[in-house]
Amino acid sequence: MIAGYMDKKPVIEITGLTKSFGSHQVLNGFNMKLYESETLVIMGKSGSGKSIMIKCLIGLETHDSGTITIMNKNLDKVNEDEMMDLRTEVGFLFQGSALYDSMTVRENLEFPLRRHTKKFGNIEDATSLVMEVLKSVGLEQAIDLMPEELSGGMKRRIALARTLILRPKIILYDEPTTGLDPITSKEIVLLMKSIQQEYKTSSIVITHDVDCARFIADRMILLVDGINYAEGTFSELFSSEDPKVKAFFKS
Ligand SMILES: Nc1ncnc2c1ncn2[C@@H]1O[C@H](COP(=O)(O)OP(=O)(O)O)[C@@H](O)[C@H]1O
Ligand SMILES: [Mg+2]
Q1: Shortest-distance ligand to the CA of residue 49
Q2: CA separation for the pair 128, 124 (Å, rounded)
Q3: At what angle do helices 105-115 and 126-136 cross, to 10 degrees?
Q4: Domain of 161: which CATH number?
C-alpha cells in the first residue's frame, strides 16, 4: 500500500469480477480500487480483458459475478435514473475517437449535453460550455471544422473535450495514444495530465505505452490471467523481478 492511500476513499471499487465468453474465461476474480483524484494505469497483454473490464464498468457489457461499486452505488442495484446520473459522472474515451463525421466539432460537443438535459438544463449557453472545453484541449479555433479536417491528434483532443463537457468526476481512457505518432502521443499524455489537474478527475488509463504509464501513473495494476496480478507505482513494477511483470517492460 502506497503511503497516504489508506486515508483516501475509493470512487470505484471492483471485487471478484468474472466474465467469460463461452468456455473462454477472460476475467477470473479481478479486484481494483480507484481512489479520488488519482490516475490508475492498467496494463496487460492484448486480449487480456482490459477493454472488457472497462465495458463492464460503464454497463456496455454485463459481468458474470463479482461487484462493481461506482461512487457508492452498486451497479447491479442501480435503477435507470441512477444509471443515467452515473453516465454523466463517468466519462469514457473510446479506443479511437468516434466523432460523428457528419457533424461539426461544435455539434459533436453539444451532442452529449442534449442527451443529459437533466444535469445541464436547457443548454442555451452551450456555446460557452463548448468554448470552455475547447480551451482546455487547446483547440478553440477548431469549433466550426468538420472531423475530416482534423489531424489524428486533434480528433483525439476533441474526443477528450466531448468527454469533459459533461464534467465527469471519473474519466476512463482506453488506449488513448494508440495509432498516434510518438510526438502526438506525448502531447495527448501531457494534455491528460493537465486535464487531471484542472478538473481534479480520477482516471483509469488503459495503455501499453510504457512512456505514457511512466509519465501519468500514480499507481498501476497489471492484468494477467484475468486477475490484478501485480500492483504498485511505476518504479515498483518497473524494477520487479517477477517474470510476468518484467515481460511488460522489455522491448
Ligand atoms: N463480444 C465478445 N465475444 C466473444 N469474445 C469476446 C468478446 N469481446 C471480447 N472478447 C474476448 O475477450 C478477450 C478480452 O478482450 P478485450 O477486453 O478486448 O482485450 P484487451 O485487453 O486487448 O482490451 C479477448 O480474447 C476477446 O477475444
Ligand atoms: Mg482493448
Answers
A1: 1
A2: 9
A3: 120
A4: 3.40.50.300
The total of structural domains in the chain comes to 1
| Integer CA distances (angstroms), 106 to 88, 110, 245, in order | 19, 6, 43
- Nearest ligand to the CA of 178 is 2
d(CA 19, CA 66): 9
User: How far is residue 183's CA from residue 188's CA, in Å, rounded to a whole number?
Assistant: 9
- Asked if 110 and 126 touch (Cβ cutoff 8 Å), the reply is yes
Tens place of pLDDT for every residue, the chain, 251 residues? 555 665 678 999 999 999 999 999 999 999 999 999 999 999 999 999 999 999 999 888 999 999 999 999 999 999 988 988 888 899 998 766 689 999 999 999 998 888 776 666 666 678 889 999 999 999 999 999 999 999 999 999 999 999 999 999 999 999 999 889 999 999 999 999 999 999 999 999 999 889 999 999 999 999 999 999 999 999 999 999 999 999 888 75
Q: What predicted TM-score, i.e. pTM, was given to this entire model?
A: 0.92
223: Cβ below 6 Å to ligand 1?
no
How far does the centroid of ligand 1 lie from the alpha carbon of residue 61, in Å?
11
Please name the residues in contact with 92: beta carbons below 8 A apart, sequence gap of 6 or more. Answer: 54, 58, 163, 171, 172, 174
What CA–CA distances, in Å, run from 220 to 41, 93, 169, 210, 229?
5, 19, 20, 11, 11
For ligand 1, atom 9: residue with the closest CA: 52
Range of the domain at 167: 5-249
Give the atom of ligand 1 at the shortest distance from the alpha carbon of 19.
Answer: 12
